[in-house]
Amino acid sequence: MRRAAVAVAAGAMAVSLAACGSAKESGDNADSTGSAKKGDDIKVGLLLPENATARYEKFDRPLIEKKVKELTDDKGEVVYANANQDAAKQNQQVDTMVSNKVDVLIVDAVDSKAIAGSVKKAKDAGIPVVAYDRLAEGPISAYTSFDNVTVGKTQGEALLKALGSKAKDGQIVMMNGSATDPNAAQFKQGAHSVLDGKVKVGREYDTKEWKPENANSNMEGAISALGKDKIVGVYSANDGMAGGIITALKAAGIADIPVTGQDAELAGVQRIVTGEQYMSVYKPYPQEADVAAEMAVALAQGKSLDSIAKDKVDSPTTKAVPSVLVPVVSLTKDNINDTVIKDGIYTVNEICAGKYKAACDKIGLK
Questions:
Q1: Rounded to whole angstroms, how far apart are CA atoms 95 and 225?
Q2: What is the largest CA-CA distance in the chain?
Q3: Interior/surface letters 38-69, b for 16+ CB within 10 angstroms, e for the rest
Q4: Per-residue pLDDT for 20 more than 90?
Q5: pLDDT tens-place string over residues 247-297
Q6: In whole angstroms, what is the distance from residue 24 CA to residue 303 CA?
Q7: CB neighbours of 112 closer than 8 A, spacing ≥ 6?
């Protein structure tokens, strides 16, 4: 996969979408993957994979809906469906969107391989598909996500920093995401590129459906196999699984070991505040959502993506897909103010509610 180099730092928050251009400014020449020219009265199909992870309903959906309205003078319509982690259901949802003659689809695939036939069906019906957050297979017209290998590297680097000299003394457990998610493989790749040779991996799991309860069961198995005194840290690919992992650690009487995460979910940020979780990866959803909306509107209107997508990415089935990869930030207790609070993702009151107030006061989060 080819991708532009992406900086991982707090300064990445300042990346402007201005460089991407707006859908209205992206030219009048129809792209080969776009539909016939249309005005602002367009219908955008939005298919998200599940709602157990907080980000999809709280951030992705409303952000995309807002941007589509903005780009179409409030004339564009977003038709939404959620697959609830069911790949077959998502394929049926694509069929429904095709039957309803949407002008473009934004799809965050439950299963990147299983969606390929449905992507082709949409393409054959003249409906371009924007792969959102996960690189779906099939003839997609555009793709936006975060640099997933860099996400894994960010997690691995943070874990090594937290371990310090303990990296040589014990073992870590790696809790990767679902094997059906291509992002999970890239997170794993990035993490291994940093961790291999620096710390011993005692147990490693690909966690079915990213479910916290499955991560919890896996962690219980790792503790039983390795012994609670031998585990010095846990690589968790996201915050939801980190919650299940930490529950298992507590039940075994294991405390004060670093656990990574991703997505900057509210519960994850609160665990970072209390010290139960060491870090998360903050992915600026507003940037990713805005890019997806700009791509979708441009394609629906038959316009070129040249001024929006400066990168090209290869999927297993499609070469040189026009792409935008958004930078990420390592989130710890030291930069909560400068990331999720500054960007308006959460307020201090939300993070520091109830039992978290004392911990917030201790780290100066007010």
A1: 46
A2: 64
A3: bebebbbbbbbbbeebbbbebbbbebbbebbb
A4: no
A5: 999 999 999 999 999 999 999 999 999 999 999 999 988 999 999 999 999
A6: 9
A7: 134, 135, 136, 137, 180, 181, 182
Q: Please enumerate, as own/partner, the contacts of 166-170 that have beta carbons within 8 Å and a separation of 24 or more.
A: 166/232, 166/233, 167/198, 167/199, 167/232, 168/199, 169/232, 170/200, 170/230, 170/231, 170/232, 170/233
Distance of alpha carbon 4 from alpha carbon 145, whole angstroms:
12
* Residue 278: both structure tokens together: 């060491």
Cβ atoms of 2 and 313 within 8 Å: the answer is yes
Q: What six digits make up the tokens of 277?
A: 């979780």
At 219, list the tokens: 């962690």
Q: Let me know how long the chain is.
A: 366
Three-state DSSP at 216 gives: helix
| CA pair distance 283, 263, nearest whole angstrom | 6
Which of 273, 193, 271 has its CA nearest to residue 238?
A: 271
The pTM score is: 0.77
Please give the structure tokens belonging to residue 64. 């995309």
Tokens (6 digits) for 11? 């300064």
How many Cα atoms sit within 13 Å of 326 on the Cβ side? 27
Model confidence pLDDT, tens digit, residues 324-338: 999 999 999 999 999
Q: Where are the alpha helices (DSSP H) in the chain?
A: 55, 61-71, 87-99, 116-124, 148-163, 182-195, 212-226, 239-251, 266-274, 285-300, 348-351, 357-363
Question: Alpha carbon of 309 to those of 20, 81, 324: distances in Å?
Answer: 7, 26, 5
> 């209107």: which residue's tokens?
301
- CA 183 to chain centroid, in Å, comes to 8
Helix or strand run (H / E) with residue 320: none
CA atoms of 242 and 234, how far apart (whole Å) = 9
How are beta strands 171-176 and 231-236 bridged, if at all? parallel
